[in-house]
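Schema walk-through. Below, the input block comes first and the output block second. Nothing else is stored per chain. Lengths vary across the set, and this one has 208 residues.
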Amino acid sequence: MNIHQVPFEEILAESVRVHGHLCAGQVLGVRLALLGLRLIGIKDPRGADRKKFLVFVEIDRCATDAIQSVTGASLGKRSLKFYDYGIMAATFLNLETGRAFRVIAREEARELADRYFPEIEDRYRRQLEAYRVMPEEELFTVQEVEVDLSEFDLPGRPRRRVRCEVCGIHVQDGREVELEGRILCRPCAGGGYFRLRKPGKSSPKASE
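--- output ---
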């Protein structure tokens, strides 16, 4: 199936089903994903081409769900990579050709959207409708890029599995850290997002 021949509203409807509601981010994410796939020559992302590309997303917002819905890429398949940059952007890499394009949502698109559907008073709703029809060059900036890809980033079975010398937990895919001659997991090396809770200490509230 050539996804670029499927009606846009049909693709959007599936994205909304996956995400849970319609929003401007869904429209933007679907269009971003379709553009990215077209740039790297992927026509059947869920079928014949599913192992030919990777997608790198840079934000944990609505558009990322849309990108995942359109491309079929996922963390579990190791075809979706997440870098928490807080930027509404995604990079599409063709594994066969090595060509990669980073597609960035233009901040100016919010203002440009006001030119469309002026009869819609609610600005958010106006953006949602405008993003459906705005030219790609008004919505996105495209950069051809190079992506440094390790063998440990590729889909497939783990290429390495080692045991942390501190906590004993096994680490896969080259994510271990060598520190002072010892092999450690990232939390034990001081790079964790959590701390072990001390016995008897009350749990902090989310706002604290």
